[in-house]
Amino acid sequence: MDRYFTPFKVIRKLIISLLVVAIAGWLFGYTYELIAAYLLAVVLWNSFYQLKLSRWLWKSRTTQPPQAAGAWSDIYDGIYRTLRRTQIRRRNLALILQRFREAAETIPDAGLVIENDGTLVWSNKLAQVYFGLQWPTDKGIRITNLIRHPKFIKYFAEKDFQEAITLNSPVGEKREIELRIIPYAKAQLLVIARDVTRIRMLERMRKDFVANVSHELKTPLTVMQGYLELMEDPKALPPERMTKAIADITVQTQRMQLMVEQLLTLSRMEANYQESFTEQVAVGAMLNALVTELCFMLEEHQVQLQTHIDNELLVLGNADKLHAAVHNLFVNAIKYSGKGAVIKMSWQREGEQACFSIQDNGPGIGKEHLSRLTERFYRVAEDRNSSTGGTGLGLSIVKHSLESHRCQLEIASTLGQGSCFSFRIPRELTLTKD
Length: 434
Ligand code: ADP
Prior knowledge:
13 strands, alpha+beta, 5-stranded antiparallel β-sheet
């Protein structure tokens, strides 16, 4: 049925009904009275439904239209249908908005929407964390009042958003944030920020590493080049200086070789970091073998060794990595503790953990160095030609190898009294021989 009203339909209906009433009035002899009564009834009927409509629209909370008769029923239904359509559209829009918000929260970057003049319109949670924003209190505030970093204020004022900028987070100075502004919609800007602390740290580490390796290789190469130049003229190098030259070249070659080996060990450890605890390692036997192997060094340095080793105590882990750790700690103790020193090496159960410690009564290490000892190439004495011939890589190898056994290197040292290097293998990796 066509429920749509046209002027023609309305007029036709009125004329027909008036004609019917007029004919009925003429038949009964009350033409005008009946027409007047009919018109009054039409006005009252329309007023009644208008009133009902107005009450429904303004007072009632339900979307369901009230009961109506005749043409008013079609009008009520029409309004109801429009209302429902708007409602569904609004619900769909709310759903889209909700999905957009959820998506904006899941992206790993911080996002802010600002007006062209800098007024803050919207921000996701990460942006609130990175820039310490209070939401929704900060909504409507200019971005330059919220991120007051001079670099950002200049960037925003210049309106040249081709490049990203890096700043320290206003919340934690250590956090580095890379920030980019992208023109968005008609008069809005999208600010995207991400935490680049780790990336920047890795970049710095890589640069330092290359600089360190080049620096470390330069010294021995310069020494060798110097001697080679001298050797070109046999008169310039008498036999006794020649012997010294060969000895020096040998030391430098050995140092370079050691450094390359240690660098390879480190990169191997980094490459296969995954923990594999399937191998049973007899650390006691490993330490006894090490003592035999390094006996000559103990004699050379005139160092006394006391051991306290539990041969029954095993570890689930990687034998090569554990060997690298204890070997480096043992060699260091011999190298650095000096003539006549006493070294105490212990491998014992402590509670549910297995504890290794190597203690010496050597010169000890200053407090200021302790936290940096496991950094690559870090040495207490900066003398690259020293008799100890260290590379500064030994303790970083120890650190790496222990990390893959879920433990850390502990260092205690007092100047003039000696040092103690130790680690504790956690309970779940400790076994006893049956
Ligand atoms: P290196 O190849 O120089 O021995 P390491 O990383 O093994 O490098 O050690 C870093 C520094 O720690 C050494 O240069 C040394 O100064 C100091 N060190 C290590 N062990 C001892 C120790 N037992 N006594 C005193 N100093 C030590």
